[in-house]
Design a protein that fits this description.
heterodimer; A: alpha/beta; nine-stranded mixed beta sheet; 45% helix; disordered N terminus; B: 2 strands; 1% strand
């Protein structure tokens, strides 16, 4: 019995190794034989990405190998691997982290000239070290029963007395909140931003916890009236196959705050790694990801805004209408990230 | 036993080798400058330390209740369902703490089953809902996931360690209550404490559940310093505090030694409970089992079956195979090293080695991500290509050994400690060499502890997350990373599919543990 057990383990092991198509003990040998591949370190773990990479492989014959983990961990891994790093492309879900990759010196230049046209200047690094793949807006979700949208105006105004006990947000350790805070520091100064955060802490309906969906559900449950959320989570609630989640999504409306200077937006971005062994394939993958067709897939599959103007927009996003976007540079958001974290700590936003 | 130089140096080498990633991380840390330390120590540190202390206290206390009490009941009495509960109560071991935490949140949130039931019964979703996302909710969910460690070790102690003492006390006229508190519990203490130690270490290094519940502990703070504030040096400082916490707990346990010998379970007959006592004992076990295992399992399985078709494909089965292979290989490696270490501890009586082994044991309290980055640094220096499948695989095993050696080592070392030295000496005096004594005398006697150690470590590894995330090769997923990725993307229902497979796979090691215990 025991022998059978160990034997089956052994078989499983051999099977496990062989069925991994890009088995790597011979990865380098393969490379010299010119087998085309590109290695992606990605913080994105949406199913739509898997489909998109499969499509790329189908069209170009270039195999996409992916390691998915948090951007922080991936960046640390790239830094530690140094010149031996197999990473070709680093993908983050936030502007702050791609800027940190720039500051760590792990990224190389992208060839801007071969990227598809129609890319807004804001979505590409001024030194060509990264390019945005998708955009998300950090908006307000409000109870359509208990909140009159005319009372909503700016992110700053949520710190006012009238919202006491009614505001919901997740923890400050969340990178989307950190980038939002960075934008407030850029616009209102460090002191103004801390004061805002203190006002928010005063107004919280409950201590920050859970994820973005949980904030919307808390509105649905009547625990609070207004929540700070990313647009695509609302889309996911509305398309959920749990009817109660759909109800939660329907219990709120979306408000784009700060329409004078523009609503705070964030990007999922990618950069080619400095020691990339397959840099030209990485460039090809970037060009592919920015093509209007793939941009449309991102939008419909994951409810994110495309960064290429000609791409089709997800119907849920389209229904929310046009809005003015904050034109603050994403580089600046990244530079202010540490200040933002500290501002949260000072204000006691856990 | 001066001829054992080889054993000494090899043990020394392995032990130091397993500490390597910590040196790398330590030097990587202290060569930098702690830019944000002032901010952390001024605004955050006291909260981190206090919160850590409170959560250790509450989870520890709850696990003692959930663990010691039923173990005592089940080892002493027969009542309705007692044979079933004896093995069933180990079940929650199969549910990763992080999954337990999100499942409980899913059970109790506004779109969850409790709210639906409440809507159905009372036309309002709120009457049956409890807000679980707070300190007590966190303590409770963590204790549900972790109490089996205390339960298992207590059960072993009560079943075959304390009985004859109790009978002696009884014959001298002591009452049941006073026997329990004055004889049974103190005698079983070292066992209970080694279970509790695992619980506390797990709590100490937990990140996912704490973050989700918005509760800031030292581990949460460590990641904040490292990633949010981009200050590895401060993170290493916080890691140092974590290390001190772990060492204190290890020392407390070191201070308690079991004084009796293992008994041959001569009087295994359990007293039969009747009437109200029978009902209460059954009720307690049912509630514990229901909350800690049935409720989360039902949630995972119903969602898992619903989303089965969306998640399961050829690649998914590869993930299942990968998971089983990596868990088995690492667990076997850990059992070997545990045997090696506990033997050299026994033969050599070297204080240096004993202390080094204790250091190796602290790996259990260190968050997996730290060990992983230490290993990447090590691999970089040794110019190992961590992107390659073979080497990633080796490095992952290396990481698991560092992280989980303690689970295997404690089980095997405790068992070996209880074997009489006299028996070794008489064998040696007849000319046997230490290897012969180990192979012919110890190994056969250690069969059960080895099976238990393997099974526990296997379950630990299948649940492991951060280390796997960082060290895994390209296109490699384990069931646990897959669960995490779905959950991270706020797709709880999809996350239940791989979680369900974790439950299914762990039936095997769970069964092995039960079988070993019954023997």
């Amino acid at each position: 019995m025991k022998k059978v057990f160990f034997l089956s383990l052994l078989v499983a092991f051999i099977f496990g190794c062989n069925s991994e198509p890009q088995t790597s003990s011979d990865q380098e040998a393969k490379k010299s034989e010119d087998v085309q591949e590109v290695n992606v370190y990605s913080h994105r773990h949406y199913d739509i990405d898997k489909e998109i990479y499969a499509k790329f492989q189908e069209e170009t014959g270039i195999k996409v190998n992916v390691i998915k983990a948090k951007a922080d961990e991936l960046l640390e891994k790239i830094k530690t691997e140094g010149e031996n790093s197999p990473a070709d492309l680093l993908v983050t879900v936030d502007a702050g982290r791609i800027q940190r990759a720039v500051e760590s010196g792990v990224l190389d230049k992208i060839n801007r000239s071969t990227l598809p046209s129609g890319l807004n200047e804001q979505y590409i690094d001024q030194n060509d070290q990264w390019v945005a793949l998708t955009m998300r807006a950090r908006v307000l979700a409000y109870s359509n029963e208990r909140v009159n949208p005319e009372d909503l105006s700016t992110m700053e105004a949520l710190a006012d007395e009238q919202w006491k006990g009614r505001v919901l947000a997740r923890s400050s350790s969340n990178i989307y909140n950190q980038s939002l805070m960075a934008s407030l520091i850029a616009h209102d100064g460090q002191e103004g931003a801390i004061k805002w955060a203190e006002g928010m802490v005063n107004n919280f309906a409950r201590t920050p916890k859970g994820n973005d969906r949980d904030q919307v559900k808390a509105i649905y449950a009547g625990e609070g009236d207004v929540a700070i959320v990313n647009t695509y989570y609302i889309g996911k609630l509305l398309t959920s196959d749990n009817p109660e989640e759909v109800n939660a999504g329907k219990a709120v409306n979306i408000f784009f705050p700060n329409q004078e200077r523009g609503t705070h937006i964030n990007i999922s971005a990618a950069g080619i790694c400095k020691y990339s062994p397959n840099a030209s394939n990485a460039q090809k993958l970037l060009e592919f990801l920015l093509s209007p067709e793939i941009q449309g897939m991102y939008s419909e599959g994951n409810h994110e805004y495309p960064v290429i103007e000609s791409a089709t927009l997800d119907p849920i996003l389209a229904a929310w209408g046009e809005f003015k976007k904050d034109s603050l540079s994403f580089t600046r958001l990244g530079q202010l990230n540490t200040e933002a974290v500290k501002a949260f700590d000072t204000a006691g936003w856990n | 036993m001066k001829s054992n130089k080889g054993l000494f140096y090899s043990s020394l080498f392995i032990s130091l080798f397993l500490l390597l990633p910590f040196y790398f991380l330590f030097f990587k840390g202290i060569e930098g400058h702690a830019n944000e330390w002032e901010h952390i120590s001024k605004n955050l540190l006291s909260q981190y330390v206090l919160n850590t202390f409170y959560i250790l206290l509450s989870v520890g206390a709850l696990c003692l209740i959930w663990g010691v009490f039923p173990a005592y009941l089940l080892s002493r009495f027969r009542f309705f369902g007692s044979n079933f509960f004896k093995w069933a109560l180990v079940g929650p071991l199969a549910i990763p703490t992080f999954i337990m935490a999100i499942v409980y949140s899913g059970l109790t949130d506004i779109s969850g089953p409790l709210a639906s039931l409440s809507r159905f019964l009372f036309d309002s979703p709120h009457l049956l809902r409890i807000d679980i996302l707070n300190f007590w909710g966190l303590s409770l969910t963590l204790s549900f996931a972790l109490y089996p460690y205390v339960y298992l070790s207590s059960l072993i102690a009560f079943t075959n360690r304390t009985r004859s003492f109790e009978e002696a006390a009884k014959s001298l006229g002591a009452k049941n209550n006073s026997i329990f508190f004055r004889i049974t519990l103190p005698l079983a203490l070292p066992f209970v404490l080694s279970g509790l130690l695992l619980v506390l270490m797990e709590t100490l290094n937990n990140y996912g559940a704490m973050k989700y519940y918005g509760y800031n502990t030292l581990t949460v703070g460590l990641f904040k310093a490292w990633f949010d504030l981009n200050d590895l040096t401060s993170a290493v400082y916080i890691g140092g505090i974590l290390f001190v916490f772990a060492l204190i707990m290890l020392l407390i346990r070191q201070g308690t030694h079991f004084k009796g010998e293992k008994e041959n379970s001569s009087s295994t007959n359990r007293q039969k409970l009747s009437g109200i006592k029978n009902a209460l004992a059954t009720l307690f076990c049912t509630l514990l089992f229901g909350f800690a295992f049935i409720a989360p399992c039902l949630f995972i399985i119903t969602k898992g079956i619903k989303k089965f078709g969306q998640v399961v494909d050829g690649e998914f089965f590869l993930t299942v195979v990968n998971t089983i292979v990596i868990c088995s290989c690492s667990a076997i490696l850990i059992v070997f090293i545990s045997l090696y270490f506990s033997s050299s501890k026994r033969w050599l009586k070297s204080t240096l080695l004993r202390n080094l082994f204790e250091m190796n044991n602290t790996g259990y309290a260190i968050p997996g991500a730290i060990i992983a980055i230490g290993i990447v640094a090590f691999a970089q220096l040794a110019t190992i290509h961590s992107g390659l499948l073979f080497w990633s695989f080796i490095l992952m095993c290396f990481g698991f050994v560092i992280r989980f050696l303690s689970s295997g080592f404690q089980t095997i070392d405790n068992a070996l400690k209880n074997k009489s030295i006299a028996q070794d000496e008489s064998a040696m005096s007849l000319g046997a060499r230490s290897w012969g004594v180990f192979k012919n005398i110890h190994l056969p006697q250690l069969k059960l502890p080895i099976i238990i150690a393997f099974s526990i470590v296997f379950i630990e590894i299948i649940k492991e997350l951060p280390l796997t995330l960082i060290l895994k090769p390209f296109n490699f997923e384990s069931l646990s990373t897959l669960t995490f990725q779905y959950a991270k993307d706020e797709m709880l229902e999809m996350a239940c599919v791989p979680a369900m497979f974790i439950l299914i796979i762990t039936i095997v090691p769970n069964f092995l543990i039960q079988k070993a215990l019954n023997d």
